[in-house]
Design brief:
Elements lengths: L2 H7 L11 E5 L6 E7 L2 E7 L11 H13 L6 E5 L4 E5 L4 E2 L2 H4 L2 H15 L10 H14 L8 H15 L6 E3 L8 E3 L4 E3 L6 E3 L1 H12 L3 H12 L4 H28 L6 H15 L4 H10 L2
Antiparallel strand pairs: 1-2, 2-3, 3-5, 4-5, 6-8, 7-10, 8-9
Helix pairs in contact: 4-8, 5-9, 6-9, 6-11, 7-9, 9-10, 9-11
């Protein structure tokens, strides 16, 4: 075990670094994750990545949200949350991480919708999340750090403001995850479990659903099925707002990538990631349905 990791492990209550066996867990591009086997039990030790504050991540808030969803049976048990030491320890969930293809299957969509409904209907989360405020904050921070943006960025920002205007302030805030990648869903054989609550806060439930659809590349039919499984119907205005939130998700991912490109110490093509998602946003807002979604979403 490296010395720096050994020092972190020593901070976990009840752990002796000499008795802990660590192995790397791959897939994350914000933090460094390890499986920790100790005393016949398995845990996930997460070492927080650099620049969390710039990304709007509040580690203490994350810990409180993670404990709430653990009580609901949606997330893993939190063993230790020590923001000052830069670590989070949770129980290891023995199951299969979903792929975008697997998460898009009707049977899994029903289970995913049930898990999302459970925490949306649970106790309030601390904090608030708005993809529009987040994009503005990421953009300003990336500019200060001299990030390089594609030449299409100004046009994308104009279209993004149109989405914000159409959505308005008419929304019911619920506890939201706000980062529903397939890799954050674990099929443990019973209910679907969800991990990585870094961006959790009170937010628009449509953004959670739209974010999930964007991250998995759901077809229109599968996206509509997700909405029906979640709410039991697919009203015109809800369908419009969901599609606009799906587009807003790509903008958030784009500017997350641009900001990470100038603050992260993890080896990853963050600039390319941002450019890809900005292109997806522009493509999604170029379809004929976009104008209809704007009108339907703004209807009272």
């Amino acid at each position: 075990m490296r010395r720096d990791l050994s020092a972190l492990v020593a901070k976990v209550p009840g752990w002796d670094p000499k008795e802990v066996r660590l192995s790397s867990l791959y897939g994350g591009i914000t933090n460094n994750n390890f499986r920790a086997d100790v005393g016949g039990e398995s845990f996930v030790l997460r070492v927080n990545g650099r620049g969390a504050e710039a990304l709007g991540i509040d580690r203490a808030r994350e810990g409180r949200c993670a404990r709430i969803v653990a009580e609901l049976g949606v997330g893993p048990q939190v063993v230790a949350c020590q923001p000052r030491d830069g670590l989070l320890v949770t129980r290891f969930l023995d199951g299969l991480t979903l792929s975008p293809a697997a998460a898009s299957q009707p049977t899994q969509l029903r289970r995913v919708a049930a898990a999302i409904k459970r925490y949306h209907g649970g106790p309030r989360f601390p904090g608030a999340f708005s993809p529009f405020a987040v994009v503005r904050r990421y953009h300003a921070a990336a500019q200060r750090k001299k990030a390089r943006f594609p030449t299409t960025m100004p046009e994308a920002m104009l279209r993004f403001r149109r989405i914000e205007q159409a959505m308005g302030a008419r929304r019911e805030l619920k506890p939201c995850h706000n980062d529903l990648l397939a890799s954050n869903f674990i099929d443990a054989g019973g209910d679907i479990r969800i991990v990585d609550w870094e961006y959790a806060a009170m937010g628009d439930p449509f953004f959670d659903l739209g974010n999930f659809a964007a991250n998995q590349g759901l077809s229109a039919d599968r996206f509509r099925l997700l909405l029906k499984e979640y709410s039991g119907q697919a009203r015109t205005e809800d369908w419009a707002r969901l599609n606009l939130c799906r587009l807003a998700s790509d903008m958030r991912e784009a500017f997350w990538g641009f900001l990470q490109s100038v603050i992260s110490d993890i080896r990853f093509d963050f600039s390319g990631y941002g450019t890809k998602h900005l292109g997806r946003f522009l493509s999604g807002t170029s379809v004929p349905q976009f104008e209809r979604w704007l009108k339907d979403a703004a209807r009272k």
